[in-house]
Design brief:
Elements (H helix, E strand, L loop, with lengths): L1 E3 L2 E5 L2 E3 L1 H15 L5 E5 L3 E4 L1 H16 L3 E5 L3 H9 L3 H4 L1 E2 L2 H10 L8
Parallel strand pairs: 2-4, 3-5, 4-6, 6-7
Antiparallel strand pairs: 1-2
Length: 116
Amino acid sequence: MYGLDHAIVIEMHGELDVVAYQRMAPLLDAVTAGSEPLVIVDLTPVTFLDCSGLSLLMRAHRRVTHRGGRLRLVCTQPMTLRMLRVTKLMSVLSPAPTLEAALEAALREPQKHDAD
């Protein structure tokens, strides 16, 4: 995990399954409760993603958007992208092929606020 200007980046590794959910949920909860307007989750090193992993990502997404922020993914793994397509989460989680592309896309869209 590291910070950029008005953003925080979390890099996940290995398998995002039920075990990862249990380990990562407290960390993601702490990060998504923060004040950074943009949270980027880098899934580039992830080798496996199941429904628990998707649930973890959606939990983080809900927490960030609830406080008016944005969550974006960095992902190039074909099976992970397929899971996002099959579950119709591509438009919700907005994966980008690189960190730079995720930052650029997030900065182009208007930021939402709780009152919106």
